Amino acid sequence: MLVHLEVDTEDIPSDYELSQIEVPKGLKEEKVERESLPAAWEHDVSLTRPIGDAWLRSVRCPVLIVPSSLVPADNALLNPAHPAITGIRMTKSATFPLDMRLLR
């Protein structure tokens, strides 16, 4: 089953893209530490959405590093409203088919 699925099944794309980015040295980033999040954050988006929403509205920095709720790794959220966003570039990209068994 897909996590946080909030879309009609017919609107789900048949594949997804994994991208790697390069952030210029010295460009400000913020990081949300896994340990700072409330209990059960991995299962309840209402516990983490306000953090991302506040960061996005503040336009403090172009990158927010957040822990993945699925694997022990981090993800980068990009703020398109930040003027320094143009310095960030995609260095790798790979497309993967969505395993439709996840929708059952």
Describe what this molecule looks like in 3D.
It is a single chain. The protein is mainly beta and 104 residues long. The protein has a domain at 27-98. Helices cover 10% and strands 29% of the residues. It contains one helix and five strands. It has one helix at residues 49-58; strands at 15-22, 29-31, 63-67, 74-78, 89-97. The strands form two sheets. Strands 2-3-4 form a three-stranded mixed sheet, with no helix packed on it. The radius of gyration is 15 Å and the shape is globular. It starts with 14 loop residues before the first strand and ends in a 7-residue tail after the last strand.
Topology:
Blueprint: E1 15-22, E2 29-31, H1 49-58, E3 63-67, E4 74-78, E5 89-97
Parallel strand pairs: 2-3
Antiparallel strand pairs: 1-5, 3-4
Briefly summarize what is shown.
This protein is mainly β and 104 residues long.
Keywords:
29% strand; 104 residues; single chain; mainly beta; 1 helix; three-stranded mixed β-sheet; 10% helix; two-stranded antiparallel ribbon
Number of strands: 5
Tell me the strand percentage band.
Answer: 25-35%
Low-confidence stretches: none
User: Biggest β-sheet, characterized?
Assistant: 3 strands, mixed
End-to-end C-alpha gap:
7 Å
The computed structural class is mainly beta
Give the SSE string. EEHEEE
User: Taking Cα atoms only, what radius of gyration do you get, to the nearest Å?
Assistant: 15 Å
Enumerate the strands of the largest sheet in spatial order, edge to edge or round the barrel. 2-3-4
Helical segment count: 1
**Share of helical residues:** under 10%
Query: How much is the average pLDDT?
Result: 89
- What general outline do the C-alpha atoms trace? globular
